[in-house]
Amino acid sequence: MASLFHSILTGAREAIAKIPGHYILEPDFVAEGFLQLVEDESLNGAIMRVTPQKGIDFARYPNIPATRLGQQSKL
After folding, report:
1. Taking the CA atoms of the chain, what radius of gyration do you get in angstroms?
2. Which residues contact 20 (CB under 8 A, 6 or more apart)?
3. What tens digit of pLDDT does each residue of 14-38 get?
4. Which of 64, 63, 37 is nearest to 50 (CA)?
5. Distances from the Cα of 71 to the Cαs of 48, 63, 66, in angstroms?
6. Which helix or strand (DSSP H or E) is residue 29 part of?
């Protein structure tokens, strides 16, 4: 079963790699950014973006009041 999954995943990766402008990021690259996000307190509330072109970067949304689950935002 594992070899079947591996074959399917490998085939999907190869197919995506042939599409111009489409990339698959390696999990360890994404994990590196996630660890930065978790360990660096200055990134509290930041949003992580990982792209092959720009690497790992962080952004912040403007202050938008949070809503509780089940309540509608009044924005």
Report:
1. 18
2. none
3. 777 777 776 778 888 899 999 998 9
4. 37
5. 26, 18, 10
6. helix 27-39
